[in-house]
Amino acid sequence: xxxxxxxxxxxxxxxxxxxxxxxxxxxxxxxxxxxxxxxxxxxxxxxxxxxxxxxxxxxxxxxxxxxxxxxxxxxxxxxxxxxxxxxxxxxxxxxxxxxxxxxxxxxxxxxxxxxxxxxxxxxxxxxxxxxxxxxxxxxxxxxxxxxxxxxxxxxxxxxxxxxxxxxxxxxxxxxxxxxxxxxxxxxxxxxxxxxxxxxxxxxxxxxxxxxxxxxxxxxxxxxxxxxxxxxxxxxxxxxxxxxxxxxxxxxxxxxxxxxxxxxxxxxxxxxxxxxxxxxxxxxxxxxxxxxxxxxxxxxxxxxxxxxxxxxxxxxxxxxxxxxxxxxxxxxxxxxxxxxxxxxxxxxxxxxxxxxxxxxxxxxxxxxxxxxxxxxxxxxxxxxxxxxxxxxxxxxxxxxxxxxxxxxxxxxxxxxxxxxxxxxxxxxxxxxxxxxxxxxxxxxxxxxxxxxxxxxxxxx
Length: 459
Fold this sequence. Notes:
Helix content is 32%, strand content 13%. By secondary structure, the chain is an alpha/beta fold. The chain folds into 2 domains: 35-124, no CATH class; 140-454, TIM Barrel.
């Protein structure tokens, strides 16, 4: 069940609605209008100016005053007040591009899937689950040097920067990314040569490492010379076979691929070097809803495709955004249409401040059934749980135990941390009232968790 304060599932843009007799919306019907001109602050901006990365970066909204200047009377005063209160309890600072603001349906902002991801409103926030943690994946515990996470045997995550072009309010790395907020004082991972050198030294010293993900933050915010330097330095290490640049930029600011020629050229040079060395260099990006994919995205991906750059997508399953099979099917088909390979759908990480976005494990498993078989297997994402405590990604179906009444799932990860059990918890709002009450009593909470752990037996 969902609390009454939560918005119902969103509808798609009218351009995506099915014609009579069609089984589903047309995944090829990409938005191609001057959508931003419906906002008072952008009404006079022509396409040549709006569709540049410079305009998008310089005019990103980072506070409610700027939001008012952009929207003016498109929303009532009560909405601004709701955002002000929502920001007070959010772990991430506010930063949203004009492109995303223009794509939001401001006639129904509480229902809009893009607004839901980037602008917190207090009226939809829910209390944190008792087991939520700021660094729920224990990344800092698996960090041998600052800004490097080495959890899997042959793969490590390099975090060269702690900023992004847009801040998702649900960021799993809210302990470090962006500026401090009222609720979180951030771990600083700023771009510094000495910290990077320490990371390179560690990677070179570990022959088992073959695969490096370059993330952050967001590699979109790295300078072109840094994109090239980091990529070349890693590729020239004999042990490294694969590198991945992680960016949400294609979803939130695709104009950079189209107009920031120096950045794309630097990325292309690394990809070409990798090809010459018979090594793999790809880009991983992050779309959550079909409405995020427009003809601007298609143009950006056209440039990536022309340069032979493989792009994969890692989606997050979110309540009120994509938690139904029709939306997820359309997202997968639309990504595939513009040559982005759907790779993962993550169950929402258990981080504070965004409990309204999480779904139950059962809900996601049901969606996965409907996605699989809807399109080709190589364009079908795996649904995974990134386990609390650092067990890594596990196929969502691979739980050792799942109690739908208490909402507790137990996973193991024998190739990552053998002999350890890892937990995932459904949102309390999806449980019946009796179970919700039990979770508020510490002794009952401990009993439920112990029962779940003991039920796995001699695995």
